[in-house]
Amino acid sequence: MSEHISLAVIKRLPKYYRYLGELLDMDITKISSKDLSEKMGVTASQIRQDLNNFGSFGLQGYGYNIELLYSEIGKILGIDRSYKAVIVGFGNIGQALVNHSLFSKRGVDFICAFDKDQTVVGTELNGIKVEDISGFKDFLEENEIDIVTIAVPKHSIGSIEKILYNSNVKGVWNFSNCDLNSLEEKMHVENVNLMDSLMTLSYKMNEKSILEKCNVKK
Amino acid sequence: MSEHISLAVIKRLPKYYRYLGELLDMDITKISSKDLSEKMGVTASQIRQDLNNFGSFGLQGYGYNIELLYSEIGKILGIDRSYKAVIVGFGNIGQALVNHSLFSKRGVDFICAFDKDQTVVGTELNGIKVEDISGFKDFLEENEIDIVTIAVPKHSIGSIEKILYNSNVKGVWNFSNCDLNSLEEKMHVENVNLMDSLMTLSYKMNEKSILEKCNVKK
Q1: B60: confidence class by pLDDT, cuts 50, 70, 90
Q2: What's the pTM?
Q3: A-chain residues near B5 (CB < 8 A)
Q4: Judging by beta carbons within 10 Å of its beta carbon (0-12, 13-18, 19+), is residue B142 exposed, middle or buried?
Q5: Which of A79, A181, A194 sits opposite B41 (nearest CB)?
Q6: ipTM for the complex?
Q7: Which residue of B has its CA nearest to A190?
Q8: How far apart are CA A69 and CA A67, in angstroms?
């Protein structure tokens, strides 16, 4: 077994988890690897290969026991644990996260938020209080925080990156539209880069004509 | 040249574009492939291979002309064009997108939003008016819309998916936390699945202990 699993595999696990959850919601308890693969648009051998990275699941001639597989993938994804999280930047994105009940169901508890805007500091949303960003560094020293979610604009990122670099935070969920290369050496960073995502969409929408043009040029 | 470029390559292009833009902002006009690769944490040969999919860029012994490369990658990403876009679901995510000035700089113009909540229907944010969702189907028939952004909760997705399936929309930017398999046959779908992203982070944070446990089990 390798010491790291490829990112492509990891990225498929949450999808498996979601689909199995949906089947459970419909009271379906067993599924053949063929049916699962058709539902998900992934080949059956891909699913088997992905899961084999983590042990053996499923039985020949029976398929998968959905409840068991769901629970095992949940453990692999680490969502049987709980995480203390804070949000830095309480704009629309920060508020969307606090309004989303699913995160706490997956073990992520936002305990407070930080912002520099004095019109939001001191306010509360869904029981999450917004603190002044000036107290962020001390807060991280005094509290064991697992995940820091960054939802500030690019020009505010420098000082936050520095505070995080000197902290014991384990994971950063980064919505800032810029890479946090210095932090990636020290902790786990997961980027949600909306601008990159939108550019990927515009590429896909134009791929055919773009590749034709490249062919002409060559 | 292949007819499709692998998704891994496509996903790196916006990153190249961002880094080159940052260099331009610093008035840097030339860079060697070695320096560019160090800055970006990608090997120089990876960058060369990626770009070679689209033609030849850069000069031996000189490196890259940043302005030229920036402009060429922009064209590859299709952001030299403009797109008419609408948002379905005007909660925090929808509002965050309208508040973000960078999207229009990349050619994406949100012309209006749709929601079913009568307390937001008729309101306006940054010049974007919120229309009643009941008019969404007719609107798509009467207007040529390139991109529909979906930012509604899972339980509201069914009827919207059906309307889109019968439309001429070219791209869907999907924030709904569920897959839109039926649409993927007909148009380009780019998913921003926050729950999947958070599970990927929790996996990374626990990978070492998870793989150790799997080893013990095997």
Answers
A1: low
A2: 0.90
A3: 207, 211
A4: exposed
A5: A181
A6: 0.90
A7: B201
A8: 6
